């Protein structure tokens, strides 16, 4: 359906996206994962025909959209990261406006508006002015606007940023439902790996403008097949212990949080006794040491040496 | 495009405060500085020492002046006025002479002195004629003066003169000056804050969302500019209508012409606002730059005071690239000087040219990011 071929965007000497290759098949939910500044938003701006690439091509049903974007635009719904709504208008007026610019009229427009309001759960609040909505409601309406013209492809740029867990779950469930019931293709970008894990069939991981991994969830996690992730927890971590682990030759990657250290080591290595000895030497009382099932977060850590949310 | 206009109109109905505030400020400033201070006459404090003077032609002649407004007061009060700078010059009138007391030496002092001297000369000329005629009774004297006045009213030839500050002069009328000046000044803000949403909508992703719809980009620009034009023009229309029919300001018979002639100015200001919007990166920058530009435009464009009093060559040169200069030139030309439309084609053409150039540059700069 949609294919990116060596897509590159350079701002002066800085590459925002470098040689990105991607494809999206009809009916898939594709995740584009990466930390802030990875180049996800630039990539989706290019693939939705909003920004001209410096090099490469975007193909929709095997036709380049760079010169003729109309075909893609007609069947694409965009959910931008920002709340792209008129705050002084009601939900209904916003939908009416976007419906009109998509040439929807009369009974057809009304039917679509009712459907969308029902889907995003705002039917009872349709007459309220958007600026009085909560963050989660605005996000839902932001998605609703993109669904109004019944698109085949929805591109969602971090649609759950800054909202409460309840609204986030509602949005994730809505995306799942749209895909399952209407066979809508979804490109979902996020830096929350649990969202991508929950939603997506296939995942692309970007960092600093480069594609660093791609495949199904299992494919990606298999990158870690030669390694295992160990979680070390203590009530109060101390600098001496952290320093010793960092300098240990068998530890490949380390991520330090307040009460937890996550390390990666080769699968065949048995490091438990060494860890306990290091804790004793550093006068540290450990509360647990455990091997974890690898997550996408671990894969990202493995590939970049940094956490997704750094 | 209709959809965009509808959405804008709804937002205006829901939130008309920017429009109302700037319209109100234009009306308020024009009222305070124009209508209430509408007299051109210069106030001159006068102290009359000899009461007998009140019945003479000296007083009647001085009071008849349209250039100076004589305000009678005690000598001490007059001196206080001069000391405080409330008046430039005062006059003490005595039976056989007068005294001019100068607070600030200016051209007005000589004008006042000249007027008082003329009044005394006329009075004593009359007295000398009466004395020379050897009239015995007062009735005969009055009759002689009457005959003399009659013959003066029907002279062999007349010389018509006008003063720069008198009400029958057309050089400077503060009512039109402040009405036009503040209308053209405040409409810059109303228009600019209607063009600004292009920038905010771009930053908020709304613009991109509309670009991805079947609406053409030119329709988006035209809709935004049309709406800004509508609101800007409406503001000027409301102000002019209020002054014409509410306060009875006579536009010297050119009221409907002014409504037509204001169009090129509104167009040029929309273009200027578009250019500013294209040059700034965010709303904060826009809010910082707009007052600087608008106030500078008003100062060198003749909105606050007549452009003729600007003396610096550099400022005069700058005023030539200022739309407000030409807006004032058009309105003053039509209403104050009664110029025909043909006479005003030059400033009209410049405003249209400015508008086209600024829109071209503005849209080009805005579009650098987009396909």
Automatic annotation (TrEMBL), chain A:
InterPro entries: AAA+_ATPase, ABC_transporter-like_ATP-bd, ABC_transporter-like_CS, P-loop_NTPase. It comes from the Bacteria. Residues 2-233 form the ABC transporter domain. One of its GO terms (molecular function) is ATP binding. Keywords: ATP-binding, Nucleotide-binding. This is ABC transporter ATP-binding protein.
From TrEMBL, chain B:
One of its GO terms (cellular component) is plasma membrane. Keywords: Cell membrane, Membrane, Transmembrane, Transmembrane helix, Transport. It is a multi-pass membrane protein. GO terms for molecular function: ABC-type transporter activity. It is found in: Cell membrane. InterPro entries: ABC-2_transporter_component (IPR051449), ABC2_TM (IPR013525), ABC2_TM_bact-type (IPR047817). The chain crosses the membrane at residues 12-35, 178-200, 221-243, 255-276, 288-307, 344-366. Its main location: membrane. The keyword Manganese does not apply. Residues 141-369 form the ABC transmembrane type-2 domain. It holds the Pfam family ABC2_membrane_3. Belongs to the ABC-2 integral membrane protein family. This is ABC transporter permease. It comes from Virgibacillus salarius.
């Amino acid at each position: 359906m949609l294919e990116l071929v060596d897509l590159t965007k350079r701002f002066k000497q800085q590459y925002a996206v470098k040689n990105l290759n991607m494809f999206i098949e009809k009916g898939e939910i594709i995740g584009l994962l990466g930390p802030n500044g990875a180049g996800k938003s630039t990539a989706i701006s290019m693939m939705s025909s909003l920004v001209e690439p410096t090099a490469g091509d975007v193909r929709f049903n095997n036709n380049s959209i760079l010169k003729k974007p109309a075909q893609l635009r007609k069947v694409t719904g965009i959910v931008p990261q920002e709340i792209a709504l008129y705050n002084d208008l009601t939900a209904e007026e916003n939908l009416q406006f976007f419906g009109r610019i998509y040439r929807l009229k009369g009974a057809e427009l009304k039917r679509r508006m009712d459907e969308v309001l029902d889907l995003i759960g705002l039917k009872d609040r349709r007459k309220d002015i958007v600026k009085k909505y909560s963050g989660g409601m605005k996000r839902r309406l932001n998605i609703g606007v993109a669904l109004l013209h019944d698109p085949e492809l929805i591109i969602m740029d971090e649609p759950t940023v800054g909202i409460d867990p309840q609204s986030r779950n509602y949005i994730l469930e809505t995306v799942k439902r749209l895909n399952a019931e209407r066979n809508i293709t979804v490109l979902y970008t996020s830096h929350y790996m649990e969202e991508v894990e929950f939603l997506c069939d296939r995942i692309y991981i970007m960092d600093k403008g480069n594609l660093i991994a791609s495949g199904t969830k299992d494919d990606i996690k298999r990158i870690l097949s030669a390694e295992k992730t160990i979680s070390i927890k203590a009530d109060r971590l101390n600098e001496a212990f952290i320093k010793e682990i960092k300098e240990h030759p068998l530890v490949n990657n380390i991520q330090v949080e307040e009460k937890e250290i996550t390390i990666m080591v080769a699968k065949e290595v048995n490091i438990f006794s060494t860890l306990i000895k290091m804790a004793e030497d550093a006068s540290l009382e450990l509360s647990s040491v455990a091997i974890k099932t690898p997550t996408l977060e671990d894969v990202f850590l493995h590939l970049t040496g940094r956490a997704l949310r750094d | 495009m209709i959809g965009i206009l509808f959405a804008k109109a709804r937002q205006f109905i829901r939130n008309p405060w920017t429009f109302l505030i700037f319209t109100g400020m234009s009306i308020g400033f024009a009222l305070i500085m124009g209508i209430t201070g509408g007299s051109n006459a210069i106030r001159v404090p006068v102290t009359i020492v000899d009461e007998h003077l009140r019945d003479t032609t000296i007083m009647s002649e001085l009071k008849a002046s349209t250039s100076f407004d004589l305000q009678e007061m005690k000598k001490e009060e007059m001196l206080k006025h001069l000391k405080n700078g409330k008046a430039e010059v005062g006059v003490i009138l005595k039976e056989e002479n007068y005294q001019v007391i100068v607070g600030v030496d200016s051209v007005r002092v000589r004008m006042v002195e000249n007027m008082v001297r003329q009044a005394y000369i006329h009075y004593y000329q009359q007295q000398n004629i009466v004395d020379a005629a050897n009239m015995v009774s007062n009735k005969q004297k009055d009759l002689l003066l009457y005959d003399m006045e009659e013959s003066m009213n029907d002279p062999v030839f007349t010389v018509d003169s006008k003063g720069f500050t008198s009400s029958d002069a057309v050089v400077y009328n503060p009512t039109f000056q402040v009405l036009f000046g503040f209308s053209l000044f405040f409409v810059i803000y109303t228009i600019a804050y209607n063009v600004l949403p292009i920038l905010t909508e771009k930053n908020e992703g709304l613009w991109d969302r509309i670009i991805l719809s079947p609406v053409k980009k030119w329709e988006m620009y035209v809709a935004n500019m049309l709406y800004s034009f509508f609101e800007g023009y409406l503001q000027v229309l409301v102000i002019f209508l209020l002054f014409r029919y509410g306060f009875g300001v006579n536009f010297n018979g050119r009221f409907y012409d002014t409504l037509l002639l204001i169009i090129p100015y509104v167009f040029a200001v929309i273009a200027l606002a578009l250019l500013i919007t294209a040059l700034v990166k965010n709303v904060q920058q826009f809010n910082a730059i707009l007052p600087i530009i608008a106030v500078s435009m008003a100062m060198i464009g003749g909105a606050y005071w007549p452009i003729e009093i600007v003396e610096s060559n550099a400022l005069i040169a700058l005023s030539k690239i200022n739309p407000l200069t030409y807006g004032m030139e058009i309105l003053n030309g039509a209403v104050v000087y009664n110029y025909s439309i043909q006479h005003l084609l030059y400033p009209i053409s410049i405003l249209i040219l400015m508008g086209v150039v600024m829109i071209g540059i503005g849209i080009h700069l805005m579009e650098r990011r987009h396909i």
